[in-house]
Amino acid sequence: MNGTPPRIGDYALLGDTRSAALVSPDGDIDWWCLPRFDSSPVCGRLLGGPAAGHLSLGPAEPATLVDRGYLPGTPLLRTRWQSAGGRLTSTEGMVSELRGRLLPSTLLVRRIQADDHAVQVRWALTPRHGWTRDRLLRREHGQAIVFTGGPLALSVHPSRVLSTDRAEDGVVTLAPGQHLTVAISAVSGEPLVHVPPDRAWQLLLEDAARWRQWTSRIPSDLPFAAAAGRSALVLRLLTHSPTGAPVAAVTTSLPEVVGGERNWDYRYTWPRDASIGVAAFVGLGMTQEARMFLRWLLHASRLDRPRLPVLLTLDGRHAPPERRVEGWPGYRGSTPVRTGNGARRQHQLDGYGWVVDAAHVFDSGCAPIDGETWRAVAGFADFAAERWDQPDAGIWEERGEARHHTHSTLMAWLTVDRALRLARAHRASPRRVRRWESARDAIGLAVRDRAFDQASSSYTRTWGGHDLDAAVLMLPLIGIEPTDSPRLRSTIDAVQERLSAGGPLLYRYTPETDGLPGREGAFLPCSFWLVQALAVTGRADQAVDLMHQLLDLSPLGLFSEEVDPTTGDMLGNYPQALTHAALLQAVLALRDAGVSSS
Amino acid sequence: MDWAGWAVFGLAATAALTSVLIAAQLAGWTRLDLPLLLGTLVVEDPDHARAVGFLLHLGAGQVFALLYALGFAVLGHATWWLGALFGCLHGGVALTAIIPLFAGVHPRIGSLRAGLESRAVLEPPGLLALNYGYQTPLVAAIAHVLYGAVLGLLLEVG
Does residue A503 share a domain with residue A388? Predict the structure, then answer.
């Protein structure tokens, strides 16, 4: 990396379901928080500049990328470069399954091999101490180099000596057919476990076999099966196995406008994302994953019920307040770099709808929900039935004055409707059911009377407004209107036309109307919701065409939240659980619309 | 040894401890739910687990009551404040050792090292069970002090 970091979408994800690293096309790990997704970064160069640390292993001479992608059915990344000297192949990944074995809680393995001729390989080891960017203490342990700081210890164990003079970087030459394997072990608050490189490599291959077995459970007859499989795998990688919490993204402060200040910390869990994940995994028939998400939702929300926090930490605690990391230059000058999230205190009505719908989907598609889940659902429905006519911050977490968002009202309707459906098989007093029925009728009336603009033949962003909101693309899935309703179809058409960002891309709302400086990119989940809406309303051909265009945006199959409509570059935190869940939902809608795998 | 007192007042002390925990849960102070944690050792459904877990909890309470009774016997007297002191120690050991070790062997509590094949669905308690709410250590301390005080007040020595 020569000063400017690569494009966001050029980074590949390595993960073990506890932490995740981002690797550049040159073989640089520029982002890695340890010991878990929401810890401070050991490699922070992506946001903090060269002083924030990186771990590199790649070609020393100028090289062109021949190909780069994941081994089928696994999170193992393979990269091939061609340099003047010869061809290099790198294979790398993290070991996820540790059960019953004496292994460090984090083990990242990288192997680089000279394929045909002798090739020089560049290496660099500059891990740093979180947000302070202080150097870690360094000592040698046989062939391994051990870095320590606070509770963290990190060992880099190469298969051959890299340096004899305590250098932080250097070059080694690999003979034809020779490889260099590096095992990077990390622990926090416990003794370091050293893993020799050859054993680490074997462990990685065994782990890859487990991933292949896992992905073999994904139905093979899905349309866009490869993209769906990759998205399911990304969602699983973003699910923190110790708690079952799906993290929204593995990064903080990757900008929605390069050079701008729309930089937020997404290393938390939004109940909304978890709920969409439940539905996606139920649709794929992966019951266990759906159950993990649902259980996490229940545990995490328990202290606040019937209120539902907007976001929580992986442990189910309230997210910390937003704070700026001073002195960090940000991605391509996008400051401030933030930790914590200011949306934590907002009131967002839509969250209740996502959660109750997830419980309904689980109940009808997997197994009956238990009594505790039902009591939580009933409490959320009571809350929505009582508060549906109050303004909120909406799904887009507007930081200005609360408003009556149409999407939030629709989701309040969804909350009570799905609770009523669940009440057929679970115990609810007649009085409570009547209250929900009455609320559902009142919400439906309000939506039809106050949220539809006759002039534009579309449901609007807010009651009585004229702006559009791509979030109302959820309409055909909710059931408040039949899927052949003219109002519903004209709304889809209006959103597609007036919020178009070119090609398959959509803005989530009219740009520059959110009070923040700068013009943000197109919002990818909305494009996948459009695919879903078109598929559900009988326009599968158009949906398939859009899907092809969307998938072409990422050769690696990794998506962030937004895309620059001009350049096609990814924007915002990356990779993003909401986008991948929306992609899966779109694929499932296409399947249900009769689109085949061919 | 006051065997009759142990049998009766052990149950009373455990019931008092459980009441404090349930009250704290209802007040939104903690997610620590000992009957659920114990019951999910044997059954997954939370409602059934709580019933089974409550019985297991009563059994565990009797075992600890026996240790308290032995402690009083060794010291030669039993008072509410001595029991409360034992309870304070008991609560500290529970938060720092018993619950974390229990979580390590519980089949349905996530381990910090859980990976792809994890089937655990209950969140791990974390340091001092803080993952169950930041007031959990205080609630656990109060519950155990009450447990010890009840035993110290009601058990007889000699």
Answer: yes
